[in-house]
Design goal:
Helices cover 37% and strands 20% of the residues. By secondary structure, the chain is of the alpha+beta class. It folds into 3 domains: 218 residues, no CATH class; 164 residues, Oxidoreductase, molybdopterin-binding domain (Sulfite Oxidase, Chain A, domain 2); 110 residues, Immunoglobulin-like (Sandwich). The strands form 4 sheets. It has a 5-stranded mixed beta sheet with strand order 2-1-10-5-6. Strands 3, 4, 7, 8 and 9 form a 5-stranded antiparallel beta sheet that branches. The longest helix is centred in the middle third of the chain and has 38 residues. About 1% of the residues have low confidence.
Length: 544
Amino acid sequence: MNHRLQPRLWLGVLSGLLLTAPMVAIFYAGWRLAALTFAPFSVFDWMTRALPGGVVTFGIDTMVRVIRSLHVAGTATAAKTAEQAMAVLGFLIAGMLAGLVLFAILRFAGRKSALAIGLIMGGLIGIAVLMTSKGADQATGGNPVPSGFWIMALFLAWGGALGWVYRRFSPDRRPGDVTPSGEQLTVESMDRRRFVIRLGGSAAVITVLGAVVGQLSGNRGKREMSQVEEELWSSHHALPNADAPVKPASGTRPELTPVAQHYRIDINTAPPVVQAESWRLKIGGLVERPLALTLDDLRRYEPLHQFITLSCISNPVAGDLIGTTRWTGASLKQLLPDLKLRPNATHLKIHAADSFYEIVALDTIKGDERVMLAYDWDGVPLAAEHGFPLRIYIPDVYGMKQPKWIESIEATDHWEPGYWVVRGWDREARMKATSVIDTIAVNMMIGQASENTRVPVGGIAHAGARGISKVEVRVDNGPWELAQLRSPLSGQTWVLWRYDWPFQKGKHTFTVRCFDGQGAAQITDEAPPHPSGASGLHTRSVML
């Protein structure tokens, strides 16, 4: 074949993009409609688990810094959206590279073998994706058998289409040649530009249709969530400190975080979806006999209701990866006698549906009734993105130690590092005392202010389950002044504080610090979140 007629390699890149984009949309529609594997997410999740912990940590820290520098509201939502965008973009780039490779191979193999080689490439890539996705279907509630056929069918179709496109781009005759029927070929009959336009148009239509169908299917879940909000405990009950004399300064964050706004950080691009009917909490390892408990079995234990503040270890000082809600579940200490542990058992290894795991010492469970297996948040079952059907709460440690989507508990006779500890994060992950200025409430007629005017300053202070004994505020380089503390929802939640500052015109810098319930001052030295949580004082400046 005349090499001048062979398609250029950039056409392979373009063809890969134009065929991969609609495949992504079809994967998306199948995922939303039938819980089939969404290949871009499953491949991305596999990569984040396979990469070294240092690389993953660097990616997390960089993402949080960028989001905060852009002043994007809702770090958790923005981070998850960024992860999903990276997964799709990476999949598209891989498709473009595959198109490049195929076109390069076919320059030597010839156009007659294009379809066969395209099918072979599609099949091999499909098998690789299938291998990386083998655990995704269980985590997302899908059936691995139809998902396997789904993956292979789409990749075979993609590979065959890519081979067919190569043949269309590489005619076996030149302009002026005569076909066996006597027809003389013209340049127009071989117009690649026209074919690219038609291919691009078809790809755009399929991509848009797939995205719309998937999005409409996802909106149904949002409507169902709005119905659940009407059943929330907080919708029908006053908070236990509603009559506390200290009132939050205007602009302070809500004392109870709405469930829909609670941060979500985990190792998945999309939350695992566990089917309640088939789910069982499997108890094994060093036990007299294995158990399998249903959610109803767990609900028969005396319920434990706790207001809890949970924070992500990746939360920077004054970040929003922290929230407070009402947890309901069964105390693990209460469950222990029914687990029939062997005498040599010393730890419980908690396994989650998304391959996350953590180890809890039995001494911790026996010594603290607050350690619980939670199934409700704010009076309703856990949402899928927050760990349905079961998650654990362990007082005084960051969220990295607290698995969601729990599916099994294994009794062992030793400690071992958990998922994030293996990847370089702190072994204990004990929550650090921290305080934040949420508001300097200057929405008033400053022009009428006098020496008697008081500017409400407020925010939160938190020290895990150790509580807060004191919060102090400093203005500019002045002395530390005591702030008022509002009665907390419980000993495991943040404390809202308030300081009414005597108004002074000009630019001022406010700094806050706190002391935990044992009287220990928060760490003032600045440190990043990795490896044991951020530290440092929070300051805000304002012109009055």
